[in-house]
Design a protein that fits this description.
An 8-stranded mixed sheet has the order 8-9-10-7-11-12-13-14, covered by helices on one side. Strands 3-2-1-4-5-6 form a 6-stranded parallel sheet, sandwiched between helices. Helices cover about 35% and strands about 25% of the residues. By secondary structure, the protein is an alpha/beta fold. The longest helix is centred in the middle third of the chain and has 17 residues. It has 2 domains: about 120 residues, NAD(P)-binding Rossmann-like Domain (Rossmann fold, 3-Layer(aba) Sandwich); about 140 residues, Dihydrodipicolinate Reductase, domain 2, CATH 3.30.360. Pfam families: GFO_IDH_MocA, GFO_IDH_MocA_C3. GO terms for molecular function: nucleotide binding; oxidoreductase activity. InterPro entries: Gfo/Idh/MocA-like_OxRdtase_N, Gfo/Idh/MocA_domain, GFO_IDH_MocA-like_dom, NAD(P)-bd_dom_sf. Belongs to the Gfo/Idh/MocA family.
């Protein structure tokens, strides 16, 4: 693997900005190039973040010899197509969440990646946040016993704006794929894939879901209770509860600085796990480790798990009576 690893970013929005800023916390990586549909935006982003190359065309970046890996930070509906183009070009790729718009697209990308032997991973950065990893180790060590219930809220108020991608159905708008994917990932990581689900949604004036409540049902009467919304500012906490106690990731749980344990036979304790930057550098560093080791998939976020999360998101969408995604011509 080249050092430093030269990242090319597709997209110039807020998530690309955060990722580029956090690459400064990776000593073996640089933001080398940026691609946008607008050459002017690409040039401005490159100047701001010290990238040597700017492209007014996504394909030009993907096929450039200026990058060693690509981070896809475009709106959701473009993820699958752009991931497939990276795979076709033989370029390792980190795909911003949600990985794709549905499980069928995710399966297509998984199949193509494995056929080509190209590294592909969803940018579920929460998986690499220190407090989240510590919580998962405590669960695995049996500190709260067998987990019976998982809870997660990711409700973050967003003022309605019909022109914003979050509320635009043509750009994959809606809270389920933007925020709800975190909660579903958390449930999957602790309890696995559910056997059934029940869910309700509140739809806004543009037709996208602005609030979703879902209960995922598992064998042995285990459950996950998940809420996500643009309409309100929620607790933004995540819990795992078993017969011996509860583990709580403090707000904002998906990049939490702390985990608290309330036990049946032990006094409450809180561990803090602060970090520099926004938290995106942890996933970038993991990609570097995988590439150095010659892995075609992440052992932490394998593509099978990513496809399974997309299946559950499809099930929640169906339970809510929301229309299946159809690409707009």
């Amino acid at each position: 693997m080249p050092t430093p690893l030269r990242w090319g970013l597709l997209g110039t929005g807020s998530i690309a900005t955060l990722f580029a800023e956090d690459l400064t916390h990776c000593p073996d990586a640089i933001c080398a190039a940026v691609g946008s549909r607008s050459e002017a935006r690409a040039n401005a982003f490159a100047r701001e973040h010290g990238a040597s190359h700017a492209f007014g065309d996504y394909d030009a970046l993907i096929r450039s010899d200026a990058v060693d890996a690509v981070y896809i930070a475009t709106p959701h509906p473009f993820h699958a197509e752009q991931a497939l183009r990276c795979i076709d070009a033989g370029v390792p790729v980190l795909v911003e969440k949600p990985f794709t718009m549905n499980a069928a697209e995710a399966e297509t990308v998984r199949r193509a990646a494995r056929r080509a032997g190209v590294f592909v991973m969803e940018a579920m950065w929460t998986a690499f946040i220190p407090a989240v990893q510590r919580t998962l180790r405590l669960i695995a060590d049996g500190r709260i016993g067998d987990v019976k219930t998982v809870r997660a809220d990711l409700s973050a108020f967003r003022a309605f704006d019909a022109s914003h991608r979050l509320f635009d159905p043509d750009l994959g708008g809606g809270v389920l794929l933007d925020l709800g994917v975190y909660a579903v990932w958390w449930a999957h990581r602790v309890l696995g894939e559910p056997k059934s689900c029940a869910a309700t949604a509140i739809r806004g004036t543009t037709g996208v879901e602005e609030s979703v409540t879902a209960t995922l049902h598992y064998a042995d009467n285990r459950q996950a209770v998940l809420t996500t919304s643009f309409r309100e500012q929620g607790t933004r906490l995540a819990h795992a509860t078993g017969p011996e106690g509860t583990l709580r990731l403090d707000a904002p749980w998906w990049h939490s600085p702390a985990v608290a344990l309330t036990g049946r036979a032990v006094p409450p304790v809180t561990e803090t796990h602060p970090f520099e930057g926004h938290g995106y550098h942890f996933e970038a560093a993991h990609v570097h480790e995988c590439l150095r080791a010659g892995h075609a998939e992440s052992p932490v976020l394998p593509l099978d798990d990513t496809v399974a999360v997309m299946r559950t998101l499809d099930q929640v969408r169906e339970a809510c009576g929301l229309p299946a995604w159809e690409a707009r011509g």
